[in-house]
Amino acid sequence: MALINLKEMLMAADKEVYGVGAFNTLNLEMSKAIIDAAEEERSPVIIQIAELLFQFMPDWEVLSAATLMLAHKAKVPVVVHLDHGMNYENIVKAMRLGFSGVMIDGSHLSFDENVRQTKEVVKTAHALGIPVEAELGTVPGEEGLYNTQNTVMTDAMLVKEFIGLTEADVLAVCIGNVHGNYIKTPCLDFNRLREIKSIAGVPLVLHGGSGLTDEDFGCCIKLGINKVNIFTDLCNSALSKLDAIYEEKREGVSFPKILSVTSEAVKQEAIKKMRLFGSSGKG
Ligand code: 13P
Fold this sequence. Notes:
There is one protein chain. By secondary structure, the protein is of the alpha/beta class. It has one domain: Aldolase class I (TIM Barrel), CATH 3.20.20.70. About 50% of the residues lie in helices and about 15% in strands. The chain has ten helices and ten strands. The strands form two sheets. It has an eight-stranded parallel beta barrel, surrounded by ten helices. It has a two-stranded antiparallel ribbon with strand order 6-7. β6 (about 140-145) and β7 (about 145-150) form a beta hairpin. α4 (about 90-95) runs parallel beside α5. The N and C termini lie close together (about 10 Å). The model has no long low-confidence stretch (mean pLDDT about 95). It binds 1,3-dihydroxyacetonephosphate. The site of 1,3-dihydroxyacetonephosphate has 15 residues, from β3, β10 and α9. 1,3-dihydroxyacetonephosphate (13P) binds near residues 24, 83, 179 and 209.
């Protein structure tokens, strides 16, 4: 099956009402664990490399090339996506590397500037046949060293105009979702999501998927979320396994063991999410 285009994958999810997990990777071990999970579940999957997390990768371009090779070899449909693209040069570089989806994150900008920057990326991306995810509203929280408490819920009244002006293919929304660990219990605005879905006409994305309940995911997917971004839950499950092996026997801990135990934890967490989002068996 191998590498496919973001829009094609999400249109299929929208038609059959399931969510595709979009998992952030930091290294080759994570990329391989995510693809192994998808193959085991026969699930479509999105692997994302986030510009906001470049500083934690040894070399994002090398990681992208390796992740793309894994995607091409995969037995299930895989999208390799640039998450939170902020800088035009990096977004174009991702397109040249062969990404099958890119995000331009103008969520911190004014409406007009968000439209301007998104349009610029869409023009280049569409010339190359690459779909674009844009964001309207601001999802707060922590991603890498980026941290904002500023929440701007997506204004359903602006969605049609935004999509019309930018021609973005996929839209990320803020309905009360937060990046990183939730400090207080999240309260999602499902009525807002329902209204956005009725207007948008494009697949929708939920950032900050980690920490939400099974019921939250169920409602979001039923109401039209097609892509669910997950990073913190992958990191937390790897960390909890690490705690466990340190507790077991400090002396017996080796670096290869740490790599394999944490990769397995990432894989199992991705499998859990694929089952929850209903994408298992759809690849
Ligand atoms: P979490 O880290 O909260 O899962 O969010 C991931 C995300 O939205 C990546 O863009």
